[in-house]
Amino acid sequence: MSEVIISCKDIVKTYNAGEAEVKALQGTTLDIYKNELLMLVGPSGCGKTTFVSVMTALLRFDSGSCEVLGKEISTMRDEDKTAFRGKNIGFVFQSFNLLPSLTAIENIALPLTIAGVKRQKAQVAAKEMLEAVGLGLKADAKPNHLSGGQQQRVAIARALVHQPKLIICDEPTSSLDHKSGQVVMELLKKITQEKGSTLIVVTHDNRIYQYADKMAYMEDGKIVKVEVS
Question: pTM of the predicted model, to two decimals?
Fold first, then answer.
């Protein structure tokens, strides 16, 4: 049996919406294992983003337990959560979130420079990641000179440059055409397998379901079904 990387049990999260309460998570339970590619799917508003925000220590929850990489995140201080994310988690977003004034290599190096890595060392690591995603010749290109698929590959390189144990992708292919989406998923799967990372993809894009090792279906704030490919 593979090592459990994330173990969430009976997570409850309630939002106050005026005088009403909205239960975003209603006893959500899920185990995620080392090196697997898990896709979290379900209708809009079912709690996917809230659940991922809980397991990455971005959002406090009301009750339950969530252990990530051996740490119970509900007991961590805010500054420890920030350091924990910076060391262990990489994020890939639908909108790429690249800084327009920076080149591709500067965008990729950013997590390392923020973490205090010397510029030259950060640039070397960024160059290696840029080559790994097939964009070695685009080091000096700014985002507005890259296609959508190329920008997403730069975003993937940025998410992986500090070699995190956990990669979180929020709709990484929904703004891409089918071919670019396939390229992105093949890259994500290949690189994370090589690095020994665990990959969680939140998606509505059924074109990429084939890449999943496991599918977790959410409805009304609960995991209702888990399928292993």
Answer: 0.88
